[in-house]
Every structure is written in structure tokens, then in C-alpha cells.
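Researcher: Here's my situation. A collaborator sent me these components and asked whether they could plausibly form a single complex. I don't have experimental data yet, so a predicted model of the whole assembly would be a useful starting point for our discussion.
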Amino acid sequence: MYLKKLILCLTALFLAPLSFSAWDDINMTPGVNAIAQEIFGLHMTIFWICVVIGALVLGFMVFLIIKYRKKEGVEPADFDDNPKLELTWTILFAVILVGMAIPATTTMIKAYDDEEGDINILITGHQWKWQYEYMEDEVSFFSNLLTSLDARNNIAPKTENYLLEVDEPLVIPVNKRVRFLITANDVIHSWWVPDFAVKQDAIPGFINTAWTYIDEPGVYRGQCTELCGVYHGYMPIVVKAVSDSEYKDFIQGKRDLKAQQALLTEKLWETDELFAIGEEVYLKNCVACHQVNGAGIPPVFPALAGSEIVMNDKGRQVEILMEGVQGAAMQSYAEQLTEVEIAAVITYTRKAWGNDAGGDGEIVVPKEILDYKNNKL
Amino acid sequence: MSAVIEGHHDDHHHGPAKGITRWLYTTNHKDIGSLYLWFSFIMLFIGGAMAMVIRAELFEPGSQIVSPEFYNQMVTNHGLIMVFGVIMPAFVGLANWLIPMQIGAPDMALPRLNNLSFWILPAAFGVLLATFFMEGGAPNFGWTFYAPLSTEYAPPTVTYFIFAVHIMGASSIMGSINVITTILNMRAPGMTLMKMPLFVWSWLITAYLLIAVMPVLAGAVTMMLMDIHFGTSFFKAGGGGDPVLFQHIFWFFGHPEVYIMILPAFGIVSHIIETFSRKPIFGYDSMVYAIASIALLSFVVWAHHMFTVGMPIAGELFFMYSTMLIAIPTGVKVFNWLSTMFKGSLTFETPMLFAIAFVALFTIGGLSGLMLAIAPADFQYHDTYFVVAHFHYVLVPGALFSIIAAVYYWLPKWTGYMYDEFMGKTHFWLSFVSVNLTFFPMHFVGLAGMPRRIPDYAMQFADYNMIVSVGAFLFGLSQLLFLYVVLKAIFYGKKATGQVWEGAQGLEWTLDSPPAYHTFETPPNLEAGEAKG
């Protein structure tokens, strides 16, 4: 009978995915800590209950379709209710739901635990990068997408971690309770690492909390999960869980770097040196909005090439980089770039794309940025 | 009576006016119903074309055909058009055509308002689509337009978007006032509330939902407007405002809105299943109560869209429990439909095929909805393709299939011509296979961790996205076949009888096919008989 064939075909269609892909690739990750594993268990329980209900309902439907096809000489019945039966299945539904609600509630209570951590990390979402600040150690850095534009534009080959790799991962120690304090600087983002079962919205003006506790060293990847503008798909999260001693080295390294950068600010700089650094900084931080050729995407992202401020108003340009622009996508870079980088990128924009010829061509040195910061204090 | 008045009276019995003015000035419920349905059909292809762009971009990893900026505009406008331009107007069109004929009324209660509610809709969508050609591009912040992405960080065209939403809201509110007034005042003698056809019941409840929540949406966009142009800080954290407030307001509108898009479908499917089972609907009373309880519950579940915003645990648990409760009335409906088929005498014409597919696939969408209700597990599902799979299962093989089923079911009544059954069935099987090919694998990529609304994705999602895209292209093409079947019926169809379907019950089947321009000028008297349809 063709109906049977049809059912076979449909089953094959639904099962086909299983044949060329491992179960892990099409299911939720079991996770790497106790709470993630518990959520995974809850998911599987609910999933199988739903599969059984679905199979019974659809199976009964197929039975009805085959059994009660119109036949010569068979009259349809004419009953139109059965209160007892209706009451029975209503109660049955309620019982099943209570059965689901109980494990869901216990898991929920475990997941919702906002005690202080051994380590507290402030996570701030920016368009389109994450900032991590180790609150006890006063270390802070930004984490940007590493995947090149060429790979995204299909010019360079795509690697295994395409779109899931960053320049500086968040480093946390194993066997410590790590608490995340999550907020945002501009629009709403959402910080999600599936292996930790942590997904928490990063909302300007709010600080949400989440926590994790990792046993095994490893690299765990996630993505922003709240639409946050053009490059929402390009702000991944990479967390590296390391041993306690490695973690201490990492923090020390960050501190040394900070001291080194302070020294660099005082150094005497050549224009060419600044220009070269500035170009690198520009390609990493500015190009998404202002474009490689400095033309921007007006009116949302203004052009830098030929801009009056960039050509002739050095003071205002420094101010914009340090403070951001109220009500626009331009954010403050005072925290995310070093003094050298800010000075270099300003120098670069004032020299590139013919701005040199059209404007005053003045450069900015790192010391000026430091002075700006100090005067503000 | 004087001859003059007699003459005037005769004028009324003329058919429709000639030319374009017939459609511009019409106050006839059948004409306005057709206008709504054609409008929705056109918007289906515009919104569908946007979906095709989305699926082409996601065909393979890496940038394909559009920029991330344009991709976001596609995602946003695809959602807005499908929700406000396709599903809602199609249901209003069906309401216009069917409610007066099903309750034995000559027309809608407020015919001029009816004309206005339709004609401001093309204006609203004209404004929305015009933003594509303006500086800064079309809205790009998702159909849920969360602040501050839609306020401080929005393109300048957001103001046009706000204006368009206001007009759509006004249209919906006027439409629902009309539906409620008609149903409560113009039923034929003898048609008590509990004898009304289920489609009429579902629309009565839907109309109340619309009146309750469209002003909330209008409030939300007005606050956005003030934040953008008048210096207020409703949603601006920097000025002491609250971005989460926006989400509470939006979803207080948004969740009932979701049911606005499915309740009329319940009515349609009930009619079709009883007709082709040749058996009265099982549990009429519980069907009505189920729709009413789903509607009431829809007001207390909104924050299940917001499990990750950082609510206190009491809030998480409350919204989890209230959401799970919805499974009870929904389950009752599914079981009632199956019981209607039980011991029936089933035939499988195109409307029945779509109605059965509705019940089956809506059940899948309902079950994934139940999974999403489990708050701790939702931390993993939220904003992934699992959610995309879920709501497309309830909106495409759910709401859209019910509308297609309704068109096949009532088209012979409306036009007087039968559609080509073979082509109709072909359309069904193509749609059924491709809709599952499109949306079923989305469950997997979602669980595996693919976030929604991204223009590019990591390598492990590649295989499934390609399958999804192929399914989507096939589904899009299949709907062109639908257009062909409808046009072929209108121009070359065989004459239909008044009864059309052997087992059809209800007042509309007592009329000719097509019905006269004005029907039931004298109400039928149902005092003696049953009117349930």
C-alpha cells in the first residue's frame, strides 16, 4: 500500500541526519561541569517524554487515517463528546506536566546560585567584542574575533575553529568557583558558553551573575546570542581553563605587560613607527565600521577620509577616541587600547587616504594621550 | 411608499460597481475579504523572497550573496512581513468572508470602518518597504526590535518603522472591533453563542486579544519614538531608563500576538476535519473552553521569552509553570481533533491533507514549545535555531497551512469554481516534504549550538544548513504552484455546487457558489435546528 511506503520514506527523511552525523553533532553538549550535565540530563528526560508523546499521537493519527478511510456501506458514527474520556485525558496531561516540573524546579534552584566566587570576572559586551576584567587582580583586556576577513570572504581557507577563535581568550583556573558579572556597554548582548550551560544577557545598566566550576583543563567556545547589530555573528567567546599555576603566570604576565606599556608611552616615537602600529590597530579595531579605505558607511558610520575633524581638529579627534560619541556606535577606546595604540591609530588616520595633504598633517604621540587622561583626573 | 424610495431600494440590489472604484470604495465584506487575502498573498511572496535571501546567504559558511548589514535587514523584515503582513491579514480576510456567512448576517457591522482597516494596511507596508530605499537602509534590529539596538543604535529609518507599526496596529484594532460587534449583534435568530461555528468562536476570542494587546505595542513604539526624538529615557540605561522594561512590554504584547496567529487556525481546522470525517466535531464545548483558556493564559506567560535576562528565581519558576499549563488546553484540542476522525468516514481532499498535516506538525511545534518552557534547559535553547525551528513549526505548517487549507476549502464557495484536485494534492505533498526538510534539521543545529540571526556560522553546522536551504528553496517554489492552482481555478475551474463538499455543515454551504453579492439580507431562522458548523 502506498501509504506504508510513504511512512517509510518519511521515517527515512527524519532519520537520515543520524546516518551521516554523529549524535553529538546534533544534540546539546553534555557540558563539562556538574550543573551543565544536570541540565543536559533534564533536557534528555524532557526530550524523550516529548518523543514518546509525539510518537503515540502521530502513530494514532496514522492508524486513524488507514482504518477509517471512507468505505462503501460503512456509515460514520455520530457521537460528538464523551465527558469522562475528556476529563481523563485532561488529568493525564496535568500529571505528566507535574512530572516534568519537579526535576525542572530542582535543577533551576541549583543553577540559580549567586554566592561569591573564588574569582570574580566582570564581562562587558561591546559592539562587537567582549571585555574581561579580573576584579581581584585589576587586570583587564578585550577579546576580538581572530578569523580573517579573507576567510570570511572565502578568499583564504576556513580552519576548524572558523568564527570561533579570538585573539585573547578568557583564562580561568580549574577547581575554583568562578563567578561572572555580566553587563554591556552599548546594546544588549548575551554571553553563552554551551559547555558551562551559562547563557546570560549582557544588558547596559544591569549586572547579571552566572558562575562555573571546571574540573578539566580545556578550551571551551561559545558565541554572542543576542542580536547586537551588524557584526553580531562575529563576537565569539573562547574560555581556556588552566591549572592554578598557569593561571597565576597568566595574571602575572598581564601585569608585566601593563608596566611595559606605561614605559612605552614615555618613549620618543618616530612618525613612521606610529603609522605602522596605527595601521595594524586600525585594521583590527576600526575597519568594521570605517572600512579599509576610510570611507565608512554613511550615515551610520561616518567617513574618516576627508573628514574635517580628522584633517584639522586634533583635539576633538583625541576626545572622540577617549570619550566615544554619545548616541552613536562610536565607543570610548580609552580602556580597550593602550596609549601608544590610540596615538598610533590617530596618527595613521591623519596620514592615510590623502588626509595628510588635505589637512594639517599633525601627528599625536602617546604622551599626549597620557596627558589627556591625567588632566581628566 | 413613494416611487423615489422604491427606486433607491432597487439600486442596492445591483452587483458591485465597475472598475477600480469597486475595490477602493467597497464596503462589502466579500470584496474586503478578497482584498485582505490577495494582499496577504502578495506579501507572502515578498516576505518569502526575503527568506530565500536568508537561506542563500546561509547555504554555506562564509559570506555568500549579501553583506551582514543587509542580512539583518532581511531577517527583520522577513519577520515583520510574515507576522503583520501575511498571517494576520489572511486571517482577517477569512473573517471578513466567512463570519457574516457563517452567522447569517448580511455584512460586517461597521462596513466603512472595514474599508478603512484594509486600505491603511498597504499604506503601512508601503512605508515599511520604502525604508529599503532610504539612507541608512531598512530596520535591521530583528522583528522583536529590542531597545537600545532599535533606539540609540538604530538606523534613521526607525521612525518610519514606528509609523508603520502604528498604522498596522490601528488597522488591527479597527478590524477586531468590527469582528466583535458583528458577532455579538448580528447572529441569525436562534444562533446562541454556544451554537456558533468554531471559526467564529476562535475569531471572537482572537479579536479580544487584539484589542487588549495592540495598544500595548503602540505604547512600546511610542516610547521608542520619544527616546529617539524627544530626549526621554524610557529604555536608555544612561538616562536612568531600563532596557529590560522594553522586553516586558514587547512580550506582554508579543505572546498574545503569537496566539492571535494560531487561534483562528484552530477554528479552520476544526471545520475541515469534521467535514472530511463526515462526523460532528468532538467536544465542541471543550474546544471553546480550550481556546478561551489558551487566550487567558497568554497574558501570564510573556517572560518565558526572557529566561536569560536575569529574572529572580521566583519569576523564572512562575513563568515556567504558567507556560507548561498551556500544554493542557492545547493537548485537549489535538485529542478532540483525533477523536473527531475516530470512527469517521475519512476522505483526503487537499483541504483535509493540509488540516491533518496541521495537526501533526503543530503537535511537533507544541512539544518543542514544551521543551522550551523548561527554564533551566532554556538556558541552552534560548536564541538558538532550536527556537527558530519551534516557532516556524507552529507558524508555517501551523498557521500558514491552516490558511492554505482554508483557501482550498472555501475557494469553490467564494469563486464558484473548483480547483484542480490533482494539482492541489501535488502542492500539498511538495509543501509537506519541503517544510519538514526546511525546519526539522533546524532543531539539530540549534541543539548543537548555532545562535539565531547570524549571517555566517562555524564549520560544524555546514551540512544541515545546506539541507535547510535546499528545503527552503523547494518550499518557496511550491508556493508558486499554489498561486497557479488558485488562478487556474478562478479562470478555468469547473463549476462548483452550493454544497461543494459532501459532509460540509454550516450556513455558508446553504448559499449558492459563488454567493450573491449581498447574502442573508433576511436572516435565516435557526430557532428549530442546529447551527454548529
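Model: Some features of this prediction you could bring to your collaborator: Confidence is low (pLDDT under 50) at residues 1-11 of chain B. DSSP finds 17 helices and two strands in chain B.
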